[in-house]
Amino acid sequence: MQKIVIEGGKPLRGEVSVSGSKNAALPVMAACLLAEGECRISGAPRLTDIDTLGKVLTSLGAKVLREDGGDLVIAVEDESKSTAEYDLVRTMRGSICALGPMLAKRGYAKVSLPGGCVIGARPIDLHLKGLQALGAEIACEHGYVTAKAKRLRGARVYMGGSFGSSVLATANVLMAASLAEGQTVIEHAACEPEIEDLARFLIDMGASIEGAGSHRLLIRGVRRLDGAAHRVIPDRIEAATFLAAAAATRGKVTVRGTDAGHLAAVLDRFQEAGVKVAANGKAITAEGGDLCATDVTTLPYPGFPTDMQAQFMAMLSVARGTSTITEKIYPERFMHAAEMSRLGAKINVRGNVAVIEGVERLTGATVMASDLRASAALVIAGLVAEGRTDVRRIYHLDRGYEDLVGKLSALGANIRREED
Ligand code: EPU
Asked: Is residue 32 among the annotated active site residues?
């Protein structure tokens, strides 16, 4: 296993380009299961999560090829393979987004139940409720969900849950409804940019979808969807992670190839925390100076994303004053707080609220990454800390950040990978 070694205390400076969005690429890849022909996806980042979904799609009869230029070319060759096995699905919950397309296209799908994960329980009831509303017969047995329907029928589906809308449940139902008979209305749909991106791809495949990017989606089912080409949107979380690292280290970094429109809530909180932020076309610059405390609440889009909560905590741990972070999407997503305390951060977690008392300095130590965004937060804290920080279990980072070490090195960080 590898670890990341950081000699901290150096401000990050320079420019960095963001990769394509992992969370946009995953449902777009799954949507290729709906197509009659070949699909070409540009901008899918080189990450283990993308490789894992590639393996899931291969196990479901698709041919998945990464061309030298980086494009993914996906074409279904054998529709008889309809089981997504536990060993693949357990490593990435995003595999659940194969359920809707397989059911709609093949009339049958069997996908391992993903189980819980370190950021919380993460149930899939909304996925199943939505597909049932379209007429699917669903059974959960022996750790698998089996869904059947001769042809799905359009329906009115309410997709709100106890924690708001669900991104991948909306994706699943949207994909399934695109091939259903008749009209579907999804109320309380997720309106994340990744859903809008998926809808754009489906429309290019021949789907009829109105309202993408809003809480109400209107889908008129079509008989067939064809192959199409698509470029995924830039990764808003990767972009914001670099901005947080720049601010926390009191540096100045310009992130290129991003979309500031997707980051309104995050940029607002940066400004509240005293970070100088300038957005200019597809570039955003953040400069850290006298950071001050602020309060953050995670919410579905366009609110502050839960996927930026840990990185923001790392930054606020060295801001003047006392900040709070209220986690409303995954109430238990605070595993990073205890690890950050090992670096000298003062963080108290009570229920779904973390209270962060800013300290003057952090000091390097060995810490353990628990999930993808927690890992990124520990790297940021390590960049701030004086002396050496070893971040262990970094396979989490390889799931969601393309060449993080290379990109941070180019910004002047003293950071490397080593065998642990
Ligand atoms: N929820 C339910 N029932 C469901 C589905 C979700 O109660 O059937 C709850 C969840 O437990 C959570 C809330 O609804 O409390 C929102 O979860 P959501 O379904 O939106 O999450 P997701 O679609 O499974 C995606 C991202 C996550 C990101 C969340 C929230 C992908 C592949 N994953 O997950 O990304 O945190 O949306 O924005 O798109 C990450 O990239 O690090 C990551 C975890």
From this structure: no
